[in-house]
């Protein structure tokens, strides 16, 4: 007798990327308990952006749940590299960060969603299924912020991706030589970008740059970005 149930639904394979094992374990447990009816399963975990990029060609996830604040590449740069390597992947940022330019920068870079780690599991599942339909989901608390950013751009919105990245590395406290090593460029290149930053933002010194960045919601805990 033929099976009347029909073919099994396609599963949505999710890769969890977070440097905290406890967070990954918690999200995995939630998805295993509540995601099955929506066809969601956890395909793997990564503790860093670098590890996520290594796993990408082997696991070929449909969706990546990406932490923002991680050592090394950080969630924003990892998002850029993931989408460059495999544009079909949907990246949803899952973070505690709810201030600053990050939602806009991530959406500009191609992220399919932006959620806080305090969101209900139903919203997380909705974000995953929405991403697979080709749409974006942003936590309601960010809509007002994004609407405000649709107004004439603030000073940070005028920066190029590389200028943003240099600024965030400065905020992290890296010296010029360390920034050059992090980016794989020479010190003179970093100096040139810093001069451009000061000119664009109307700052006379690195201290002025740091002060402006923090006024705009960027703090030392955040990772580098290259949208």
TrEMBL record:
* Secretion signal span: none
Q: Name one GO biological process term.
A: regulation of DNA-templated transcription
What are the Response regulatory domain coordinates in residue numbering? 13-132
Family matches, as Pfam families: GerE, Response_reg
The molecular function terms in GO held by this entry are: DNA binding
Q: Which residues carry this modification: 4-aspartylphosphate?
A: 67
Keyword annotations for this protein? DNA-binding, Phosphoprotein, Transcription, Transcription regulation, Two-component regulatory system
> Mind telling me which InterPro entries this protein's record contains?
CheY-like_superfamily, NreC/VraR/RcsB-like_REC, Sig_transdc_resp-reg_C-effctor, Sig_transdc_resp-reg_receiver, Tscrpt_reg_LuxR_C, WalR-like
Per UniProt, residues of the HTH luxR-type domain are 152-217
State the superkingdom.
Bacteria
For this entry, the protein name equals: Two component transcriptional regulator, LuxR family
Q: Organism source for this protein?
A: Ectothiorhodospira mobilis
Query: Source organism lineage?
Result: Bacteria, Pseudomonadati, Pseudomonadota, Gammaproteobacteria, Chromatiales
């Amino acid at each position: 007798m033929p099976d009347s149930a029909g073919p099994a639904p396609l599963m949505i394979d999710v890769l969890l990327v977070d440097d905290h094992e406890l967070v990954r374990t918690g999200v995995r447990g939630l998805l295993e308990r509540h995601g099955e009816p929506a066809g969601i399963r956890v395909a793997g975990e990564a503790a860093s952006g670098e590890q996520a990029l290594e796993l990408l060609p082997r696991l070929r996830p449909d969706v990546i749940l990406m932490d923002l604040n991680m050592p090394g590449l950080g969630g924003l740069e990892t998002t850029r590299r993931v989408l460059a390597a495999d544009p079909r992947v949907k990246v949803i940022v899952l973070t505690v960060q709810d201030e600053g330019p990050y939602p806009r920068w991530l959406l500009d870079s191609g992220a399919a969603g932006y959620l806080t780690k305090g969101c209900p599991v139903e919203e997380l599942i909705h974000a995953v299924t929405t991403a697979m339909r080709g749409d974006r989901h942003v936590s309601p608390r960010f809509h007002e912020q994004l609407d405000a950013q649709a107004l004439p751009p603030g000073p940070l919105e005028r920066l190029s991706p590389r200028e943003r990245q240099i600024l965030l590395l400065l905020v992290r406290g890296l010296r010029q030589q360390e920034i050059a090593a992090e980016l794989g460029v020479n010190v003179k290149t970093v100096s040139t970008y810093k001069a451009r930053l000061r000119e664009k933002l109307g700052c006379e010194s690195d201290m002025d740059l740091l002060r402006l960045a923090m006024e705009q919601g960027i703090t030392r805990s955040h990772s580098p970005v290259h949208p």
